[in-house]
Amino acid sequence: MDDVAKSADDPARLARFEARVAREDKVEPNDWMPDAYRRTLIRQISQHGHSEIVGMLPEGNWLTRAPTLRRKAILLAKVQDEAGHGLYLYAAAETLGISREELVEQLLTGAAKYSSIFNYPTLTWADVGAIGWLVDGAAIMNQIPLCRCSYGPYARAMIRICKEESFHQRQGFEIMLTLCRGTDEQKAMAQDALDRWWWPSLMMFGPHDSDSPHTDNSTRWKIKRVTNDELRQRFIDATVPQSSYLGLTIPDPKLRFDEKTGHWRTGEIDWAEFRRVIAGDGPCNRERLADRQAAHDDGEWVREAALAYGEKRRQQPAPFESALHAFSG
Ligand SMILES: [Fe+2]
Ligand SMILES: [Fe+2]
């Protein structure tokens, strides 16, 4: 018995739900939904939210070392956008019945799953360019179809997030372009960043469709509308010409253009590396977790101050009432 059948305690309700999803009506938080639909969304949205939060760390490392004031202002805005994405997504997950405390707890205890890409180090400034170009570029490919996801709060959050990701991708490409038009040393830095970020970016789309355990239900319920392999192919086809424009070489001797299909074909991804990073043994997994825990501890006074302020506001009369008092007094 699969997940769908198990959750079908009321077949008539399930049929109504599925008909509605088929009509492209959005599912909203108070609507009835199958348990497996709720669980799939909680898993996916919380993993997505955690990825946005952890995703601030690799680039955050370069905030104090950005080469110019302009670059620093752009990077600061981008990292703040990622915090915002994390918070919209946590709020969307909360509408499905998981609490903010549970989400924060998952992240701080290391129980949370997040994108494997954020466990790689940022060694030079060119890595900030490569992340914007490739990682945010891959995120856009993944997220554009999610704007049409059947769950309303997730789909709506994605519309704004995609607009911001598009700015992130462009600022990253512009950093790469500047480096590639600079000195030989700067161009070498850009190439080195591409060499290190290319394969992890392809891994961001997840396992091949044939090895992906979640695709079936997710497609049927219009949570996932395009498969991992199709999204990865779109990303490769968009990115290879950009890399030629930059004058950089994709680090894949097997890369070739397939005239028959009009697609770029790559060599095989190192799935053993992917599994290792996902299992917690990537180059920076421990560092990311420790940094996140330290940031949470350092923020203790902010949470205390916000709670104290909220408490004080609750004890004061609302502005309308105090105006009334002043008038009558
Ligand atoms: Fe983001
Ligand atoms: Fe982004």
Helix and strand element order: HHHHHHHHHHEEHHHH
Bound molecules: fe (ii) ion
Averaged pLDDT: 92
Strand order of the largest sheet: 1-2
Termini Cα gap: 71 Å
Give the quaternary arrangement of the chains. single chain
Taken from the alpha-carbon principal axes, the silhouette is globular
Question: Helical proportion?
Answer: 55-70%
- In terms of DSSP E residues, the strand content is under 5%
Task: Report on the biggest sheet.
Answer: 2 strands, antiparallel
The number of helical elements comes to 14
Tally the beta strands: 2
Q: Which regions have little confidence, pLDDT < 50, spanning 5+ residues? A: 1-5
| Radius of gyration computed on alpha carbons | 23 Å
Helix and strand content put the structural class at mainly alpha
Protein architecture, described:
With 329 residues, the protein is mostly helical. The chain has 14 helices and 2 strands, in the order H-H-H-H-H-H-H-H-H-H-E-E-H-H-H-H. It has helices spanning 3-7, 11-22, 35-60, 69-94, 100-109, 125-143, 152-180, 184-203, 215-220, 228-246, 271-281, 285-298, 300-315, 319-328, and strands at 256-258, 263-265. A two-stranded antiparallel sheet has the order 1-2. Strand 1 (256-258) and strand 2 form a beta hairpin. Helix 6 (125-143) runs antiparallel to helix 10. It is globular, with a radius of gyration of 23 Å. The N and C termini lie far apart (71 Å). The relative contact order is 0.10. The model is unreliable at 1-5 (pLDDT under 50).
